[in-house]
């Protein structure tokens, strides 16, 4: 009787610590914010130092850093990645829990015995020793997997920051291009109207008026293409920031690219790549697989299960016993799982080597492209300055009646084309800098900083 009461108390104590279930219905409406002002964020939780120390104030417009901050705080994919990190932490917690013992109860009632017979029972308390022995490898694998998911999240945050900066760069460049095209449109439309009037008066030929029309329509086509590109990038940016697609964002400031110090980057390349979250995530995943492989090797040994038995037979005789179950590693010996885990480890090894090789190649290409783009931009700006001088003189000559309208328009159009080329090169140079920051992290050494350091008093 005392044993039954103790068992009942133990059972009630176990049940009192159980978790409870509560349903969580799915949403039935959109919950995307309509403006950046309605989003609150904690700068201290942002991945980069320049973001965590930047002031977030959407009331005066969003600069490039504020766009990146908002993306990290409210990106839907990052929210799901953080949920995945919560799952990994829960799995790590579960892997560290001790296995529960197993309690078995049987009862027998005699149906044709004598008066002296009684009900029989059997209590079995068993414990899987192998589950306890494999706990360290399971826990080690789960902890390394949690580190991998956490590092994957950090790498995904890097990608979101880069994508936000890239879209900001593209949109600001498109705004500058739109201003150039609108100026060209006004100039060509005025030229076309005058050529039509001259054609009606018989002062010009049809081919000259047609050429003005073709030039005007070409600019209109570029404006139409640019408007579609702006709309697409605005929708992409809103989606990246977790806002409604119709949200209007006021972007302020212009990105300014700086030439990186290739020598300083090459010197610190190994250290910077070792700190890259995606490579660290692959390292953590490899450590997790090492633990799984070790667990599979341990599991080839005989599985051991031990237990205690308390019983009473139908004659009223009580017994206390000890039981042990031992598997015989004759056929299986866990060889299949060992082969799988070993092959998986080989795959992860090769994947890490390939990612490391790609990282070095991508950095080398980016470092080669930067000075090339910088040189092209310098030459383009030099040509732009020359055209500006010629255009000013042409405007004075045109107003004085010493230059034909067609020649004046050609010079002005050439200047606008050169300015457009400079905007495109500036955008490409900024995109290359963003690519380098994505590959190697922020706070990269620049040639300007290097010169200031070398010439510091």
UniProtKB/TrEMBL annotation:
GO terms for molecular function: efflux transmembrane transporter activity. InterPro entries: MdtP/NodT-like, OMP_efflux. Keywords: Coiled coil, Signal. It comes from the Bacteria. Residues 171-198 form a coiled coil. Residues 1-21 form the signal peptide. Belongs to the outer membrane factor (OMF) (TC 1.B.17) family. This is TolC family protein.
